[in-house]
Each structure stands twice: as structure tokens, then as C-alpha cells.
């Protein structure tokens, strides 16, 4: 830190403070983790200075032999770990990985046949007229993804993201009674809508998805199944999700982030079947800028870590802890979406405490418990205020907490939510944004959180 401080002390101080904050609070954000020292060190070195557009062995820059090595090693580990025929480790984030996948599916289904059947030309030789026909074909495609309030992600076809502008989108959701994924409704929607892509995977669904069943539905309507396993990649890597619940054997293409339950550096990755490999490898420069060699190197290290028995043990403990956390909350009277969990996350419906998700998130943060507010299915408070709080166990499990501590964490969360009431606006009307929290409770929870 001294080296950084000599150049810009505010940044050095922020780094030091971030470490202190992460040490002294309970990190329950389901998408966060603590990467190992090996992963962190691999990101901070001379690879960050290197340009390497292109793919392994086919670069637009000279001097890329060492980048070729780290990209190959990362891809080799990814293929072995997930049993995938092809891996592309360049995407800079989960959103970028999804963009690569969308384009690959479009290109394979539309562009490639168009080029061979319609014009028999190489893409560089298309006339303006050819492009106009191709653009119309590309622009008329549909995506069926899980709805945001049921736990889907913005990139699964929603307006604030380019996926919602590239594709005509429709969503599938969960059963209103049980909160569970409604496969019959998904099948009906697919039959009626006839999408090019069905996206499965989620950011806030606390149960497992049967990918074999979703693939059957995709095949029936001629859609490509893309699974975004960003959240649960660590559980797949750790062999906790196998058979019908492992997306890799069932989907034609799988995307992921590398920094959530997988515990690597911030980044993305695409796994696919051989027929999509060529299009996926066009990710840079089609939708990505130059790769981040230092991050690809760190992905290689994290993937090597994930191939160990220790990691399998870690993945199982994530789920054990998540179940213990859910049980601890349920027994204290909390309401959970779907009534529990089968994976790394728990979604608390905080409306039973008489507060919004935003108030709950703020009250918990005041007390040293870091979470994020999240919509619940059919949320009356919308996506900004929300009625839910999402919590997950990957980070606390990395810190070594077990099921007994999860019961204590559940007690702390319940205590804070129970001691929080709605604040008011200046006019005295109830506010969805502000909260009133008993200061003594907050202080005592913060002390216990830091001790844990
Ligand atoms: N896909 C899913 C399912 C996610 O939950 C997220 C992030 O929360 C992403 C993609 C995007 O990842 P990133 O923030 O790395 O772009």
C-alpha cells in the first residue's frame, strides 16, 4: 500500500478501508466471494500491460506467446472442470459473456446459413443489399428468458439491457402459489412464442432448475438452450449440481461469471458445443475489446483451485450453510420465497416485517450485515424499493463459517429486521426509502457481526 500511497493516498486509504470493511462485516451478497491470495496476486502483474486481440495462436499483435499460454491453460482447466467440449475465457464480465453467446447463436443460426445459402459469400464481401436482408433476419429474433421478478437477470432480454433491444422478448416465471419454476407454463410459452433462444439460469431463484427438461422444451420448438450459470457455477464445479441440474451436458451454450460462487477473478466465460465454437471464438473483436491477460491468468489459477477435492467440499458447505441459514430464519418467523433453498441463496420477503427491501437492506448495513434488496415474484414495490432481501453463503463459507454460525447469522438478521420500522417523508407520510432502527439493537448486532 505504501507504493500506492506515494502516488495517490486516497486510493491507498480506500483499499485499506475496503479490507477493513470486508473483514468487520458479514458479507451476505449472494454474488460476492473472497478470491484466494493466488488469484489476487495473479491479477496484479505485467500481463495487464499486454494487448492480445484475437484467439490463441491467432493474434492481431506480436509478442503474445505468454498470453497464449495462460489463455490455453485457463481453457484447458475450464473444459476439464465442467466437461465442456469448448471454453472461451476472454469475456471481461458476465454481461460480456452473454453478449458473446447471443451473437454466436444468432450468427450460427442466421448469419452462417445466410452466407452459404443466400449469397455464398464471405462476410467481408457482402453488398449493402445483402446486409439489409441479413439485418432484417437478425433483427427479427426472439428470446424467452426468466422474468426479472422471478429471479432472471437483466441480460435475459430486458429493456434496460441491450438483449431487450436486440431481441423481441417474452418471459417465463414461477408458480404464484409455490414460487417454483413452472415448466408447463414455460413449455406453453415456448410453443406459442417460438423463440430462437431460451435462456435458463438466474440471479435470485433459490431452487434448482431441471436443465434436461428445459432442453427438451427447447428441442421441441427448435430453440437453442443457453444457460447463464453465473450464480451457481461454483456448485456445478464442485459437483453439487449434477445430472439434470448440471447445465453443461444439456445446453448448447453455457455462460458464467468467474467471481461469484466459482471464487475467481471478476470476469466471464463461455462453454459450448463444438458447432458453436467458431462463432464463440469471434467474441473479440465482434463484441469484446482486447482480452485482459492478467484476468485470464487469474481465471486459470481459480479454475485449477476449483478442480481440487477442497473446492468440492467448499461447494457442499455453501449449500449446507444456505439451508441452515434458511432454517434459522424460518424458525424465527421470517417469510422466504419458495419456503426455503436448495442452492447458495435465500430470498427473504421482508413485507412480513412491515418494511421494504430498501429499508431492510439499509438497516442491515447499519448493523454490519451486507446484503442487497431484491424483487420478489409479483413484487408490489417494484424493482427499486422491492419487498425482498437476497442473501447468499459463498463468501461466509469461504471465511470458514459453518451451520452453527449460520443460525447465529439468521438470529442477527431477524433481530435487525424486527427492530426496524418504516421512516417517514418530510410531510410525515410513510416512506419506502427511509427506516427507523433501534440504535442499541444495531450497535449490538454490529459488534456480534464483527466478532463472527
Ligand atoms: N448473469 C447473471 C445470472 C448474473 O447474476 C450477473 C450479475 O449479477 C451477470 C450475468 C452479470 O455479470 P457481470 O456483473 O460480471 O457482468
UniProtKB/TrEMBL annotation:
Pathway: One-carbon metabolism; tetrahydrofolate interconversion; Amino-acid biosynthesis; glycine biosynthesis; glycine from L-serine: step 1/1. The keyword Methyltransferase applies. GO terms for molecular function: glycine hydroxymethyltransferase activity; methyltransferase activity; pyridoxal phosphate binding. PROSITE patterns: SHMT. InterPro entries: PyrdxlP-dep_Trfase, PyrdxlP-dep_Trfase_major, PyrdxlP-dep_Trfase_small, Ser_HO-MeTrfase, Ser_HO-MeTrfase-like, Ser_HO-MeTrfase_PLP_BS, SHMT-like_dom. CDD domains: SHMT (cd00378). Its EC number is 2.1.2.1. (6S)-5,6,7,8-tetrahydrofolate binds at residues 148, 152-154. This is Serine hydroxymethyltransferase. It comes from Phytomonospora endophytica. The lineage of its organism: Bacteria, Bacillati, Actinomycetota, Actinomycetes, Micromonosporales. The gene is glyA.
Amino acid at each position: 500500500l505504501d507504493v500506492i500511497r506515494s502516488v495517490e493516498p486516497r486510493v491507498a486509504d480506500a483499499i485499506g478501508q475496503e479490507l477493513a470493511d470486508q473483514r468487520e462485516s458479514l458479507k451476505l451478497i449472494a454474488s460476492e466471494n473472497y478470491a484466494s491470495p493466488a488469484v489476487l496476486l495473479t491479477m496484479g502483474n505485467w500481463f495487464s500491460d499486454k494487448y492480445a486481440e484475437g484467439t490463441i495462436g491467432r493474434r492481431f499483435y506480436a509478442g503474445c506467446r505468454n498470453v497464449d499460454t495462460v489463455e490455453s491453460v485457463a481453457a484447458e482447466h475450464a473444459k476439464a472442470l465442467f466437461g465442456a467440449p469448448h471454453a472461451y475465457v476472454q469475456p471481461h464480465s458476465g454481461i460480456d459473456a452473454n453478449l458473446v453467446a447471443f451473437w454466436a447463436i444468432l450468427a450460427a443460426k442466421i448469419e452462417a446459413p445466410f452466407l452459404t445459402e443466400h449469397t455464398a459469400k464471405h462476410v467481408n464481401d457482402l453488398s449493402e443489399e445483402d446486409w439489409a436482408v441479413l439485418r432484417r433476419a437478425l433483427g427479427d429474433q426472439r428470446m424467452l428468458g426468466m422474468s426479472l421478478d422471478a429471479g432472471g437477470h437483466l441480460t435475459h432480454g430486458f429493456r434496460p439491457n441491450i438483449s431487450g433491444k436486440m431481441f423481441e422478448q417474452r418471459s417465463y416465471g414461477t408458480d404464484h402459489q409455490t414460487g417454483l419454476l413452472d415448466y408447463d407454463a414455460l413449455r406453453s410459452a415456448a410453443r406459442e412464442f417460438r423463440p430462437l433462444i431460451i435462456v435458463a439460469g438466474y440471479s435470485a431463484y433459490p431452487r434448482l432448475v431441471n436443465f434436461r427438461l428445459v432442453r427438451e422444451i427447447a428441442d421441441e420448438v427448435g430453440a437453442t438452450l443457453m444457460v447463464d450459470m453465473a450464480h451457481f457455477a461454483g456448485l456445478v464445479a464442485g459437483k453439487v449440481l449434477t445430472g439434470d441440474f448440471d447445465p453443461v451436458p444439456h445446453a448448447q451454450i453455457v455462460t458464467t461469471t468467474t467471481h461469484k460462487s466459482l471464487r475467481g477473478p471478476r470476469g466471464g466465460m463461455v462453454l459450448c458445443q463444438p458447432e458453436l465454437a467458431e462463432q464463440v471464438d469471434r467474441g473479440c473483436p465482434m463484441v469484446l475489446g482486447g482480452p485482459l491477460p492478467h484476468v485470464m491468468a487469474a481465471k486459470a489459477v481459480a479454475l485449477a483451485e476449483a478442480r481440487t477435492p477442497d473446492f468440492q467440499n467448499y461447494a457442499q458447505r455453501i449449500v449446507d450453510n444456505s439451508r441452515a441459514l434458511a432454517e434459522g430464519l424460518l424458525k424465527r418467523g421470517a417469510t422466504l420465497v419458495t419456503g426455503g433453498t436448495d442452492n447458495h441463496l435465500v430470498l427473504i420477503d421482508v413485507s412480513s416485517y412491515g418494511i421494504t427491501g430498501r429499508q431492510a437492506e439499509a438497516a442491515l448495513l447499519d448493523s454490519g450485515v451486507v446484503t442487497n434488496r431484491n424483487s420478489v415474484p409479483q413484487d408490489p414495490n417494484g424493482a427499486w424499493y422491492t419487498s425482498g432481501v437476497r442473501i447468499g453463503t459463498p463468501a461466509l463459507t469461504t471465511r470458514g463459517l459453518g451451520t452453527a454460525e449460520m443460525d447465529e447469522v439468521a438470529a442477527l438478521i431477524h433481530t435487525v429486521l424486527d427492530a426496524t420500522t418504516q421512516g417517514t417523508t418530510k410531510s410525515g407520510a410513510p416512506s419506502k426509502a427511509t427506516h427507523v432502527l433501534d440504535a442499541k439493537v444495531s450497535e449490538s448486532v454490529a459488534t456480534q457481526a464483527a466478532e463472527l
